[in-house]
Amino acid sequence: MRKCREILRHVLDLGLSYEVTERSLGVSHGQVCRTLTKVRERGLSWADVAPLSDDELEALLYGAKPPSPCTAPLPDWPALDAELRRPGVTLQLLHQEYRERHPDGLGYSQFCDHYSRFRRLRPLLMRQQHLAGDKLFIDYSGKKPSYFDRQTGERIECELFVAVLGASNLTYAEATATQRREDFLRSHIRAHSYFGGVSRLWIPDNLKSAVVKACAYEPTLQRDYEELAAHYGAAVLPARPRKPRDKAKVEVGVQIAQRWILARLRNVRCFSLVELNGHIARLLDELNHRPMRVYKRSRRELFEQIERQHLRPLPAHSFVLCETKEAKVHIDYHVAFDGHFYSVPYALVQEPVRIRATGTTVEIFHKNQRVASHLRSSKRGGYTTLAEHMPKAHQKQRDWSPGRILNWAASVGPHAASLCHAILDSRRHPEHGYKSCLGLLRLGQRYEKERIEAACARAYAAGARSYQSVKTILENGLDRIPMSPSEPQHAPPLEHEHLRGPDYYN
User: Fold this and answer.
1) What is the DSSP string of 391-420?
2) What is the CA radius of gyration of the chain?
3) DSSP 197
């Protein structure tokens, strides 16, 4: 590199002689003379050239070096760059295809240099820094593993789940039947058991099992996935839609898993998902113990050295997978789940709630607050109702069972007891006469027991079997009129063969 600036500073600014300048800078007498001649020919002083950069000064004195012309045909660089994103395509392969079309074209070195200059013209990329224990990248492989049905010989495709820790590149992979919610969550649970700890951030792709609504700024997470992350003490930060560089770690991890695991299993016939995962686990162990070219250490070694101690501990209790459902409370303050009806506080009628069910319990949430919890029932069409969920009036009505009504009737008199028995017996199901008997009980709030007993005796003698008949008799005062000799004066015994005993209704 020419020492133009220092030559000019020594002579023009410091006033040193040519001889002193030559000895100080180690340059020849001719170089000092040529540099000063060019400046003086242009009528410049040290004040004029001092603010210029080295490139500007050299261009001023010697002129810009023209680029060497390229006469060879150049490829379509944008199209070539797009081709490089396809699986298995390399720059060497593209150069070979280019030379087949243009035998006198660029050599491989020039081809690579031109492509590098093209890449430098693209938008700048931010180099991601991954701290130990900070991020876990999650994705599924586009290339799917498969196994065979032992009975039919049918080839069954499945999914390859891949998770990669950001700092150490420690990789976990397994085959699952689907990408659905339950398989997705179970893969997370097994991955964290494999790592032995939890990273601070989870960065998944925008699949539906993780993200309900994808957005670059405010994505909506799947509720169960959010609960799983909260259980493990982690936060979820989905990659931006159509921005694979946000999860470049797992993109490379998926590519390595495809080459190191799937490619080596291409000639292996497995007959179950369990058998397939056995082979994957063996190859995964080899992958994580194989030295990496850049770091000269294996993923497992790097993990043990820099990342394990920074992972958060696994939770004390395992996460219980559950089913969730959004529902609206029915008018009878119950919600339906799996064909069964469960009660909630009656004040929540017509309110939206979320049902969370495990194999043994059903929990109901309103505005993220649990408002009810029941044991799960498999009885379709059945009801599970807690008394505290009912309005006061319904609680009082519920307290009156048919057995209690018959006990009340017996306390009024034998005719009242006989009529209540007859009302219940006259219906196909005792429940159908339940309200009629409750109506008789309610009449006890307005009339004396003697009048109710007399009215029941007259109604029973007339063959009436309803609350309305007794009410009419009382309102019209017919209970005060003595019964004719033809009417029965005594109630039939309760043990008569056509009457059911009180224990039947209890």
Assistant:
1) -HHHHHHHH--HHHHHHHHHHH-HHHHHHH
2) 44
3) S
- Residue whose structure tokens are 């070979």: 96
Name the pairing type of β-strands 155-157 and 201-203: unpaired
Long-range contacts of 140-144 (CB under 8 A, 24+ apart): 140/179, 140/205, 140/207, 140/254, 141/254, 141/257, 141/258, 141/262, 142/254, 143/87, 143/258, 143/262
Residue whose C-alpha is closest to residue 161's, from 194, 198, 131: 194
Task: Read off the tokens for 27.
Answer: 């340059």
pLDDT in tens, 273-326: 999 999 999 999 999 998 887 667 888 988 888 888 889 999 988 887 888 888
Distance CA 184, CA 314 (A): 18
Are the C-beta atoms of 383 and 374 separated by less than 8 Å? no
Q: Answer left, alpha or beta for residue 372, where phi above 0 means left and psi between -120 and 50 means alpha.
A: beta
50 Cβ partners below 8 Å, 6+ apart? 9, 13
Q: Shortest CA distance to 455 belongs to which of 439, 435, 431?
A: 439
Residue pair 262/346 in contact by the 8 Å Cβ criterion: no
Q: How many Cα atoms within 13 Å fall on the side-chain side of residue 450? A: 1
Q: Name the nearest CA neighbour of 101 among 70, 71, 75, 69.
A: 75
Q: Phi, psi at residue 322, to the nearest 5°?
A: -140, 165
Cα distance between residue 258 and residue 327, in whole Å: 42
What pLDDT digit, counting tens, does each position of 420-463 carry? 888 888 876 555 677 778 788 788 888 888 899 899 998 888 88
